[in-house]
Amino acid sequence: MPRQARNWSLGATYHIMMRGNRKSQIFHEPKDYQNYLNLLQRSSRNAPFLLHSHCLMNNHIHLLLQTLKHTPTNIFRPVNTCYAMYYNHKYNAVGHLFQGRFKAKLVDTTSYLLGVSKYIHLNPVEANLVKKPEHYPWSSYPAFYQQKYDPLVHTEKVLSFFPDSPASSYNEFILRKLTYQEQEEAATYLRP
């Protein structure tokens, strides 16, 4: 039976999640992470999009992405195919690298947008990889916290909700303890 077609809305924002097959690692060393980001940047030239936040973990990926004229499938098919070929060649592996199709949840409210961005940037902290989100090198957080230029990341939309000193206000938002409602919303981010 064929897979059910997905409904995409061009111009919409999605929380994109991809996981390694059987939850296995998809990144082993810095060059792997950088290669994936390079492929994503190359894809942005062929199928433009706005990347609002991202975090590459060793066995999964989170992206907060706004489509423009192409669907997420058009964006990620070449990226994931090229990365899987690179990975299989480098690590003498065979078969699927990613577990099924990527997940994409429509982000349709401001609170959901900000909650997903917070969830993405706190992912390495929650996984006990770092104590502070700014210490994790494979996230878009430095583009927000230090206003460090990242050619892939468009911080304007997220920071527009923090008009008074955006970088420090966003950092305060990230470090503020989640409310019960935010915890409930965050729990739904990974559910199908």
UniProtKB/TrEMBL annotation:
Database matches in Gene3D superfamilies: Transposase IS200-like (3.30.70.1290)
Gene Ontology biological process terms in this record: DNA transposition
A Pfam family that the UniProt record links to this protein: Y1_Tnp
Every Transposase IS200-like domain range: 9-123
Source domain of life: Bacteria
Record SMART domains: Y1_Tnp
InterPro entries, per the entry: Transposase_17, Transposase_17_sf
Protein known as: Transposase
Origin organism lineage: Bacteria, Bacillati, Bacillota, Bacilli, Bacillales
GO molecular function, one term: DNA binding
